[in-house]
Amino acid sequence: MTGFGKATTQIPGKKITVELKSLNSKQFDMQARTPSAYRELELEMRRRVAARLERGKIDLTITYETLGQADSNTKIDSETAKVYMQQIKQMQKELGLPEPADWYQVLMRLPDVVHSESVSTAVDSEESKAVLKALDEAIEALMNHRREEGKKLEDFFAKRLRNITDLLTEIPRWEKERVERIYARLEEALQNISNEQIDRGRLEQEMIFYIEKLDVSEERQRLGQHLIYFAETMALTTPGQGKKLGFISQEMGREINTLGSKSNHADMQKQVVKMKDELEQIKEQVLNVM
Q1: Number of structural domains found in the chain
Q2: How far apart are alpha carbons 158 and 156 in whole angstroms?
Q3: Residue 89 neighbours by CB distance under 10 Å
Q4: Beta-bridge mates of residue 115
């Protein structure tokens, strides 16, 4: 869901810049910083951004600069700059942030600090169209950034899935040795119990139940199916698969955990630890998927 997009456009006497930044979020949440003259366009801008980006924490910033010779009535609103400076300093204390290295550069770029009294605050239809066109271009640039990141994530997930599959394939190597060790420990324990204390029928039932409880074939099969399902879901072209991939990874985690608790074998448990490590990397990055 992360991405960045920027677009600029020019109209007579003005250069307009639109910037969009997207971060991970379960819902759509957009914060807009725009000149007061463009406030009437915010609902339409929000609608366009939400329709394309769907979800994420979105920062929209629109700035403009006057082209040509500066108007004699251009003013710097020192009171507005002072309020901004006080708020920034308060935020600096609360969040433990460093003080800006260049206050002039920060304050002069904030909305309404610099304005021209001779220019009407009303936005005509041509300027509105220019702003929305630049917004659409910034959205497309951000979407292209997301696509590039998505391709990297696809390669990342594919590698992690292959690693887990390879680790899972090695599990049967120790199955025979593991079962033999379990039988040996049971026989050793039974030798310390006299025949008079044993109900042979009940003992056989309990041993069968115990051995079946340690069988990991079902967990291996289900984990293998989850791995295939994850890859198939990842290959879908329809949007909105991120949450489903998150659910699948949770199911994978359950099977891996059960596999580890049943294994009762040092080498198998090492394989389980490696699978958990691969899965944790998947879970961290699946949050970036739409």
Answers
A1: 2
A2: 6
A3: 13
A4: 75
